[in-house]
């Protein structure tokens, strides 16, 4: 999307291909998953965005690339020619070969994932209110997604149970966060990592570090080194990403986790007219974080390089400008690392996180509804703030 916007003043005819009718704002998916936002709050129509930037939107799934003939083919048989091609598909979950992980976990990478997770969560609370056994939730992965989700789930023990199921003992809902590394949020400074761990445990999250998973079963997580299995009615996978399986059929060079190998200017290795940007791209000589800011900057850079090539000029190497990192832990708790060394934590960091994400949301309606829903959730603390939609809960044991 950043690339499309960067080409707006060119004379090029821009075709925007996507498998969905909407773009998803992934940083707030955990709020959808924990019933704080509607799915529509984090979605924006791709067609309206494309029209705004003088592009043509076509819905379809890419299945093959003919680099010699400069054509792409979609799953429905349609073909499109190109002078330059930009690939920005993003990533999907990586299960690292762990037995049962793909079949028995729920991810949080797409809008559909968030809806499925929300429905499982609300259905589990309903079963808990009917007198069944305790409800155990396991979040796998101690990165930003895992931390934010675990923090939100732990806080909802008070909010949802008090307002919707007041007769249920909150101690019967257990939230665990499992991380193989010795700390959470490993790219962050030690001071912020320690604060994150302390805040999660203060909110009642059972954080288990240095913990390897050998297998995921429908009702438990089996740990390595002979440790006692963890009971888990709902297991959420936030431990890593890999390229979508379809990428293997495109005939492009792939590196770690299936990512497309690019050169310094973001052109795919061995290709003069194909660029790859965002999480799907990797320069082995200069790897960068798989987060939103690098993706946005890469999209803008690819657009600039296409304009340079069209003028007969040489391309320039991509340089990532690190603006920092931020992650929210829960109400009035977040961590922020800004470029230059400034570190924030607590309420100020939480407000900064909220403001930045509202700013980057696409669409005025989305910003307004998100502001209203999140304000209600956090200002009316303990008295509601839960968006409940849908009336067909998933069957127990099916993830």
> How big is the Rg?
22 Å
Strand order of the largest sheet: 12-11-10-16
CATH topology of the largest domain: FAD/NAD(P)-binding domain
Total beta-strand segments: 23
How many individual domains?
2
User: Structural class, judged by helices and strands?
Assistant: alpha/beta
The main β sheet shows up as: 4 strands, parallel
Report, as a whole number of angstroms, the end-to-end distance: 32 Å
Q: Which runs of at least 5 residues are low in confidence (pLDDT < 50)?
A: none
CATH class of the largest domain: Alpha Beta
Cα shape? globular
* Tally of helical segments: 10
CATH level-two architecture of the largest domain: 3-Layer(bba) Sandwich
Percent strand: 15-25%
Describe the structure.
The chain folds into 2 domains: 2-19 and 60-91 and 243-310, FAD/NAD(P)-binding domain (3-Layer(bba) Sandwich); 101-241 and 324-379, FAD/NAD(P)-binding domain, CATH 3.50.50.100. Helices cover 31% and strands 22% of the residues. The chain has 10 helices and 23 strands. It has helices at residues 2-6, 29-33, 46-52, 101-104, 111-129, 144-163, 190-202, 292-310, 347-360, 364-379; strands at 14-18, 22-24, 43-45, 55-59, 62-66, 71-74, 79-81, 85-87, 92-93, 135-140, 173-178, 206-208, 213-217, 220-223, 230-231, 234-237, 241-242, 260-261, 274-276, 281-282, 324-330, 333-338, 343-345. A hairpin with a 4-residue loop joins strand 5 and strand 6. The longest helix is centred in the middle third of the chain and has 20 residues, at 144-163. The chain is globular, with a radius of gyration of 22 Å. The chain starts with a helix and ends in a 20-residue tail after the last helix.
């Amino acid at each position: 999307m950043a690339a499309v916007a960067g080409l707006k003043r060119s004379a090029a005819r821009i075709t925007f291909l996507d498998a969905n009718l909407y773009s998803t704002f992934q940083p707030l998916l955990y709020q959808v998953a924990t019933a704080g936002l509607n799915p529509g709050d984090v979605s924006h129509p791709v067609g309206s965005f494309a029209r705004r930037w003088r592009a043509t939107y076509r819905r379809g799934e890419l299945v093959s690339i003919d680099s010699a003939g400069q054509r792409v083919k979609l799953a429905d048989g349609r073909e499109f020619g190109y002078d330059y091609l930009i690939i920005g598909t993003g990533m999907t979950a990586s299960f690292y070969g762990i037995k049962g992980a793909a079949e028995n976990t729920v991810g949080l990478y797409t809008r559909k994932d968030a809806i499925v997770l929300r429905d499982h969560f609300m259905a589990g609370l309903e079963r808990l209110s009917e007198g069944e056994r305790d409800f155990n939730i396991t979040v796998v992965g101690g990165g930003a997604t895992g931390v934010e989700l675990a923090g939100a789930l732990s806080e909802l023990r008070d909010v949802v149970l008090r307002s919707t199921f007041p007769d249920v003992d909150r101690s019967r809902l257990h939230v665990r966060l499992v991380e193989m590394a010795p700390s959470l949020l490993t790219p962050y400074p030690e001071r912020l990592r320690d604060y994150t761990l302390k805040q999660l445990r203060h909110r009642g999250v059972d954080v288990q570090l240095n913990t390897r998973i050998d297998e995921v079963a429908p009702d438990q997580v089996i740990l390595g080194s002979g440790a006692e299995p963890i009971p888990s009615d709902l297991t959420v996978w936030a431990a890593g990403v890999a390229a979508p399986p379809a990428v293997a059929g495109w005939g492009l060079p792939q590196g770690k986790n299936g990512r497309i190998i690019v050169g310094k200017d973001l052109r795919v290795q061995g290709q003069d007219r194909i660029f790859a940007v965002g999480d799907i791209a990797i320069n082995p000589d200069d790897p960068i974080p798989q987060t939103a800011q690098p993706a946005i900057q890469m999209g803008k850079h690819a657009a600039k390089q296409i304009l340079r090539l069209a003028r007969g000029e040489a391309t320039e190497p991509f340089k990532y400008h690190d603006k920092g990192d931020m992650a929210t832990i829960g109400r009035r708790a977040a961590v922020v690392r800004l470029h230059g060394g400034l570190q924030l934590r607590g309420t100020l960091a939480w407000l900064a996180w909220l403001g930045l994400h509202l700013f980057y949301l696409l669409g005025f309606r989305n910003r307004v509804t998100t502001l209203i829903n999140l304000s209600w959730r956090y200002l009316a603390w303990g008295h509601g703030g839960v968006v409940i939609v849908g009336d067909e809960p998933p069957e127990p044991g099916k993830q």
